[in-house]
Amino acid sequence: NANMKVTFFEDRNFQGRSYECMGDCGDFSSYMSRCHSCRVDSGCWMMYDQPNYMGSGYFFRRGEYADYMSMFGMNNCIRSCRMIPMYRGSYRMRIYERDNFMGQMYEMMDDCDNIMDRYR
């Protein structure tokens, strides 16, 4: 997707070497040894603290993250990222009260700030 872009920096406050990313990247190690800040120019991204989209995942939207590790309480640098494609059509999601699709089912077709409110 040509309109998605994030720039990663080795050091905090957008210092040091940088790597510009315009799509999914499973491992930053060939581009930079560490990443301590980033600037999301467009799109929404999931960032992971392990290569190949593993480990803890963090949601980043458009903005500047001069010291994201402190902001999110992260112990490790970002090691991989995946863009979240924009979807403009209608959608439907079913959630269930218990495991294995058991219990009360609720179908959502619009935004929901708090799922628990829907079950009261």
From TrEMBL:
GO MF entry, a single one: structural constituent of eye lens
Alphabetized UniProt keyword annotations: Repeat
Annotated PROSITE patterns: CRYSTALLIN_BETA_GAMMA (PS50915)
Xref: Gene3D superfamilies: Crystallins
InterPro entries referenced in this protein's UniProt entry, alphabetically: Beta/Gamma-Crystallin (IPR050252), Beta/gamma_crystallin (IPR001064), G_crystallin-like (IPR011024)
Lineage top rank: taxon: Eukaryota
One Pfam family matching this protein: Crystall
GO BP of this protein: visual perception
Family: Belongs to the beta/gamma-crystallin family.
Record-given protein name: Gamma-crystallin M2
Upper taxonomic lineage: Eukaryota, Metazoa, Ecdysozoa, Arthropoda, Hexapoda
